[in-house]
Amino acid sequence: MTHSSAIVGSSWLLGLMLALAIGVTPARAADIDVAVKNPRAYGHVVGDRLTRGVRFTLPDGYRLERTSLPGQGKLNYWLDLVALSFDALDERGGRVEATFVYQLFYAPLQAGRRELPSFTVRAVGPDDDVIEARVPGFAFTMSPLIELQSEAEFGSQDNDIMLPDERPGLRDVAAPRRTALISVVIAWVAVLAWAWISDRLPGYKRGPFALAAARLKRLRRGTEPATPSALRVLHRAFDATAGRAVFAEDLDGFVAAHPAFADLRDEIDTFFAFSRRFFFVGVESNGDRRHTLTELQRLAEQCRRREARA
Amino acid sequence: MQGDSRLADWRARALRLEEQVNSVMVSQAYAVRRMLIAVFARGHVLLEGDVGVGKTTLLRAMARGLGGGYERLEGTVDLMPSDLAYHTYIDEDGKPRVEPGPVLRHGESLATFFFNEINRARPQVHSLLLRLMAERSMNAFNREHHFPHLLVFADRNRVEREETFELPAAARDRFFMEIGIAAPETREARRALMFDPKFHDADALIESVDEGLVDYTALNAFASELQNAISVSETLQNYALDLWQAMRDPAAAGIQLDDVDVNTLIAGGGSPRGMSMMIRAARVNAWLAERDMVVPEDIRAVFAETAGHRLFFNPIYELRRDEIIGRLLDAALARIAAP
Asked: Which segments constitute the AAA+ ATPase domain (chain B) (predicted)?
């Protein structure tokens, strides 16, 4: 038997056992399911209120008999049930959340155990059959308000009855602080990267050709023919530099207004002539695509340098 | 190939005509080029300018170069539509006579009709003229007369407003172009106009233009051939559409003008007919520049003349029209990029 088939075999066995376990103890249909949510079981003093939530889940068609629950009022000499409320969790009353609020009137001389009494609830079925369930008691510790010490006295320098207030404990914030710092750094880096890409970095404005060069660099490198969008990127850079739409006929004026580009005149002329053929001749697949993306990138880079110098 | 050589042949003649008209006019190369475009796009022109800047001389020179009949009529407040068609007088025998008027006198050979001071004439006359422009025909002597080669040039006096009838929007829209003619700006040109005896005798000056340089009877056929020969790419169509949109809604195109609220500036205009005329003119401009496709520069060259008079401002801005329109058109051209 190989290793993998052993695993398959054992998981088979496990499945069988699970099926058996479910089969042996099937949930009885006519049971009230009781789930109790208890308060803390220590540190209670006289006058405290204890809130106990009990969720009853009844079988189909059963309704909880309210009179089987303890009534509001004095339960015994030290315990009152001061409030009792019901909350139906579904429309037919099949799931009920009962909230019991007890108040303690016992004043212990020393810490001692007490218990909220258990009680039995009843539910009536569709055929008037009655089922019962027991809500267990709840044991907890009650303490005296003040420790009984014969030698201690109020206001004594050496042995005061009251201990000084405990200072609230400080939570460890090192880990959250580190997380917050890292988040802030990441957010700032993201904002700066966005500002850089969209040229909104305050105090550091990149020129149109610097942006165009960066944008062209982001396009795929290679010798493939220049795409309309790549040509447009460069056109927008010329437009932005001139402050208005620049066409081939405007190049004299453009160079006159921006003498830094004068020595690139031939390259710029070639670019505009190519672009004019490309966009306006109407025949775009005439095999005359002399400008490749690499050439556009080179022209943008040359213009970027002139722009930075100007 | 034959088409190409025909285009080149016609272009040579057109440029010669332009050159000769330019030798008659001083510093009016811009207006002459626009007139030439209108002639080859077969569109009627509204001329605009001060008194005595040479509008009539320019027209007569152009008409002489084109050949065909030339007529000129002065718009006056008492001019009636019938005055265009009939000439009435008392003959030597004292009998009333009715002869063909200025429009009919040349018959079908009428090629250039100049209506001077069109806004002095009454709206009845305008409407007759508009029909003449749109259909190139007129009813007179109980039959319909056709003028297949006719181009109408009209001149508008902008100095006076008394006793004038402003052209309605529909009438202005029918003009292919509105060309402004200004007095020469340079001192040299003004000196020549004042002191060169050549410019004192307009008749002799116009004689210097060769008569019938361009055959006006063949212009219609050639104009449509030219329109088909010049291609317009999709990118350029988008550019023209963007321009049109920017004119209709300057605010959306991001156009801002000092001292003008562009949101409320435009009341209407920018008609489809106008935009198609703009492309017609751009094609002629491309042909004159020896290109077989239209580029944005062609549209730019004719934009102000073909689109400007078709835009109508809100009344509060209409009085400042001359000042605003140039800025608006320039801003649209600067703003809209192509490709």
From this structure: 41-185
CA nearest to A276 within chain B: B295
Q: Which residues of chain A are within 8 Å of residue B294 when distances are taken between CB atoms?
A: 280
Question: Is there a single domain that holds both residue A107 and residue A204?
Answer: no
Q: Are B211 and B237 part of one and the same domain?
A: no
> pLDDT digits over A80-120, tens only?
999 999 888 877 778 889 999 999 999 998 888 999 999 99
Q: pLDDT tens digits, residue range B205-240?
A: 888 888 878 888 888 899 999 898 888 888 888 888
Q: Where residue B2 falls among pLDDT bands split at 50, 70, 90?
A: low
B210, B327: one domain: no
Residue A37 burial (10 A CB sphere; 0-12, 13-18, 19+): exposed
The whole domain housing B247 covers 230-335
pLDDT beyond 80 at A52: yes
Domain count of the fold of chain B: 2
Cβ distance B293 to A239 less than 8 Å, yes or no, reads no
Residues B168 and B314 in one domain: no
In a domain, B7, yes or no: yes
| End-to-end CA separation in angstroms for chain B | 30
CA distance A184 to chain B (A): 37
The bridge status of strand B110-116 relative to strand B151-156 is parallel
Q: Tokens representing B198?
A: 């050549």
Distance from the Cα of A283 to chain B's closest Cα (Å) equals: 8
| Interchain proximity A247–B334, CB inside 8 Å | no
pTM higher than 0.90 for the full model? no
ipTM (interface predicted TM): 0.77
The secondary structure element, H or E, covering residue A218 is helix A208-218
Q: Where are the beta strands (DSSP E) in B196-271?
A: 266-269
Distance from CA of A310 to the nearest CA of B (A): 23
B291 within domain boundaries: yes
Residues B203 and B256 in one domain: no
Query: Closest to A245 (Cβ–Cβ): which among B293, B294, B336?
Result: B336
